[in-house]
Structures are given as C-alpha cells and as structure tokens.
Automatic annotation (TrEMBL):
It comes from the Bacteria. This is Uncharacterized protein. It comes from Rhizobium paranaense.
Length: 59
C-alpha cells in the first residue's frame, strides 16, 4: 500500500512540475526571462513566508 501511495504522490508532483514548466515557458514568451524568474522567486518567497498555507492569516 505504501508503495502505491508513493507512486501516486510522485505522479502528482510530476504533473505539477509539468504545469510549472509550461507556465514558465508562457511567461518567458510573453514577458522575458527576468520577469519569469522574478515571479517564480516571489512565489517561492510567498510559500516560505507561510502565505501558501490555506490557514495563514495576514497581519
């Protein structure tokens, strides 16, 4: 059972990576590399600060 859960989780993660890659390509095409990298870094910062948590309350 645990092996199947791992495979399901891996497949889910792979799907998210594919979506991120496609979105990144679209952002580069529309606005260039600098914008795209900045947007992804800001997204990572947002998550690191806990704002990606549905239970997070803004100050």
């Amino acid at each position: 059972m645990q092996e199947e859960q791992r495979r399901t989780e891996d497949a889910s993660k792979d799907a998210f990576f594919e979506r991120i890659a496609k979105l990144s390509e679209e952002m580069v095409a529309a606005h260039g590399k600098d914008f795209s990298m900045g947007a992804l870094v800001l997204g990572a910062r947002w998550i690191a600060e806990g704002r990606g948590d549905p239970g997070h309350k803004a100050n």
